Amino acid sequence: MRFLSFLLVLIFGLQATLTLAQDCNGADHTVLAGNLYFNPADLTISVGETVAWVNEGGFHDVNGNISAISGESFGNPEAFSLPTVTGEAAGVCMGTHTFTVAGTYNYDCSVGSHATNGMVGTITVEAAAMGCNDDLACNYDSTATSNADCQYNDDTFDFSEGFWLVPINALNPDLDCDIQPAVGTITSVVDAEGAPVTVVVDAALEAYINGAVADGLLSSLQAILLLS
């Protein structure tokens, strides 16, 4: 009977360990905790990413609320914490936290004098990448890493000289955009009588339009398509 009880304890213990390990799966970043350390001690992530803490040995927690050293609030954008967990060499998942607010987060291990002895960490959460890397959008930015903020304008603008641009990607008058469309784009135009004309924007035409805007001869919404 005693052997059966020991076996059940062993089985449930293994299940708990497996569950803890599975809890850390899928995290974007992992911080290791051990003998008075968090590794990496300084971590930079993006808003919306999840961090997992894995205990490699000792009895530790993750405390991002009240500093165990000063007794005062860390002043983090939002408080976070994970309960104390006993680690092992193979690693035991302490838990995860998803950071949804940009800013700098300080934390420590509040067990005993661990924090005083250097078991502290910092997580810098950067705002999600902004901008638009779609060169067909009116707010195209070659340095952007996302197209989540692309803006398009589907209106029809009078570009004077008797021609109308019917754009998929016309300039947004509320934005300071580069002239669109880009080289190689097929632009639909109608003449003064409303007859459709197709123009392939080449380097020369783009240079002319950009130059005219740069010289102050045209505003971004007065770009003239010269048809020869």
CATH homology group of the largest domain: Cupredoxins -  blue copper proteins
Gross CATH architecture of the largest domain: Sandwich
Side-by-side strand order of the widest sheet:
2-1-4-7
- Overall 3D geometry? elongated
The main β sheet shows up as:
4 strands, mixed
Strand content: 25-35%
Helical segment tally? 2
Query: Approximately how much helix is present in the residues?
Result: 10-25%
In CATH, the topology of the largest domain is named: Immunoglobulin-like
* Average pLDDT reading: 72
- The level 1 CATH classification of the largest domain is Mainly Beta
Helices and strands, in N-to-C order? HEEEEEEEEEEEEEH
Radius of gyration: 29 Å
The low-confidence runs, each spanning 5 or more residues with pLDDT under 50, are: 1-22, 153-186, 218-228
How many domains? 2
Strands, count: 13
